[in-house]
Amino acid sequence: MNELTITRRGFVIGAMAFAGGMAIGISRPAMAAATHNPEPWAGEVLGEEFSPWLSILSNGEIVVRVTPPDIGNGVMTQIAMNLNEELQADWSMVRAEFADTNRNYREDNVYGNVGGPLAYFSGRSTGPERLETALMVGATARERLKKAAADQWGVPVSEVTAENSILTNTATGDTLTYGEVAEAAATVELDGEVTLKPRSEWTTLGKVSRPKLQNPMLVNGKAVFGIDVQLPGKVYAALRQVPVQGGRLLNVDREAVMSMPGVLDVVVVDPDEPREPLPVPPPFPIGAAAPQAAVAVIAEHYWQAKTALEALPVEWDLGDGVQWTDNAHIRQTVMDAVQNEGEITVSEGDAAEVIANADRVVEADYFTGYADHVNMEPLNGTALVTDERVDVWMPTQHTQQSHMVAAEESGLPPENVYVHQTFVGGGFGRRVFGDDTRMVVAVAKKHPGVPVHVIWSREESMRQGRFRAMIGAKLKASLGEDGYPTAFLVRHAGRGQGPNVLSDTAYVAGKGIPALQVEEHILPLNFMTGPYRGPSYNVNSFIMESFIDELAHEAGVDPLEYRIKLMEPWEDKGWVKALETVAERAGWGESLPRGQGMGIAVCNWGGGGRPFFGTTAAAVARVEVSPEGQLKILQIDATCDVGTIVNPDAVLAQIQGGTIFGLNMSMNEELEIENGAIVSDNFHRYPMLRMADVPTNIRVHLDGTSGHERINEIGEPPVGPVGPAIGNAIYAAIGKRIRSLPFRTADLTWS
Description:
By secondary structure, this protein is of the alpha+beta class. Helix content is 26%, strand content 21%. The strands form seven sheets. Strands 10-11-8-18-15-16-17 form a seven-stranded mixed sheet. It has a six-stranded mixed sheet with strand order 13-21-20-19-14-28, sandwiched between helices. β23 and β24 form a beta hairpin. α10 packs parallel to α11 (435-444) and α14 (537-555) runs parallel beside α18 (722-734). It starts with 21 loop residues before the first strand and ends in a 10-residue tail after the last strand.
């Protein structure tokens, strides 16, 4: 068992630079902001190319290129670890850097052929396809190095070994380093296909935890986030977008601020300005990055720009979105919708008829509001636009998406666009669509030839989010004589990422619930929504695992036993193992005083109702509620069935961080709305967990994994079970069922 007590952790990301040598891949264009060269990259290639992913330099440095931005999840280190499992290089010589989207476009998707539309996406970045690619690149390079050494010694390759960056002639004991034969190895052609080691012979993956390659850069201050970008002649822009989605700018009095200190210009972003369509579609829908009406003040320094923007007289036409007057109005609209039949999206068996004719039916309404990502680094980016090219320095979560958005907004062809990936001060899905890149380029192109650093204030970042969607749901279940469901009906309403609900769970996929009907209402709520760590899954898990708990209590069956019984027909026993692991570690079933309770939940991210797919996450929460309604989280036990664990410390860190994320999401997060606009514009109106609020006992148990061969995701899954486990624990403690998030708004008083 591995347990962690929560302390403050720093999430660090970065990369190292390199020069010269054997190139099994590309070079300088991929350097990202780790090296932070202030000049636009020339795009030259260093050395011979055998594959886009790897260079070995004459000094022995190993440079691995990765496409996904490292947003604190350690993907750069993990991909390098995967490759080096076969390469067998000295780990102290391994570096990593971001792969270049410009070259990817010019050379027919040279990087995008691994991962497809998600190749440059920060999520789903360490799955089996990337693992297989990295292992093969490493193995191929190793065999080329061995062949080059064998040719130099005049011996068969079978007499050469490779380990720790040393090539050894087993007959004579002579040695060469990888760097010494790198140039020769660049011209080697292998006979036949390289065979990968079986997993049983892995020497590092699953056995050794590696700290992030980038840690020293954060410690010594060399890590460059988007907000840190410095370029010769750079100026700053403070941005204000229309407060209500879809509104337009009526008037701006630019002369009112032009004489203020440092002010250089006032520019307008017009969403109705004609834009040429792209020659190829971007990875994600371009509509999600649609331009918004905005004004920006450009000045010599950011504070000058921000001060002038606050003084700038602006008149908006807010449009029809003002009809959504407040949270209560929107919630009522959503919950009214679920009282009526919707479009059927899932139908297995005749659930409606079974429920209509049942003697015992349980029914409940659930609701979750809008939530923001509140990234610690506010939205920002820098662009230099000329007639010939556009360079963009962005803390984006999808470099390729930013590339294509920058091309469309600048009007330049994609081959003339260079996106320089910086480090990211919090992603969680907010920086995926490229709308921030759009606005950066839209402002900078009005001030051509000068690098313009566009910064959203904290308030503007929160007002202009791509929020977790609001969801309302009505659930009905008919119960048989044994208290187990014979049919399920789920009706949900909202806009954006609607849930697939029970069809993704083992209860339905395993036929523990024989009949299911899911109905949907899509409402024109006028708020931009998008992925939020564990999209849809995060709120689906709360709704479904809370309702399953309701059924267990209605049936008079222990909630753990109830879930296990429902999953008996399900072939993927990882779900049950995860449940049993956290239940045993948490002391499930022990007697607790009134006001204390334990709750349990299990869910799966990415499986889509398929056995042995995705990551199954389970948690037990122990809570205490005072008679006055003060909620305290005493302990959380968490596990994830990720299949094969390749970097134990990284998995621990992700479960730990995801658990805290899920804790904050369920305890605190809901945006306030007035007249169609977000008014929760800083932390005084959008509370977040403080260190004192985090339970000292968050215990992560890695022995909850089933050990199957699939290597699954770990960033999103831990979020899911936390909220329902807490809600179920509250019910066990005081007998009150909380059916909406966040818990801070609930009346938890009891006597």
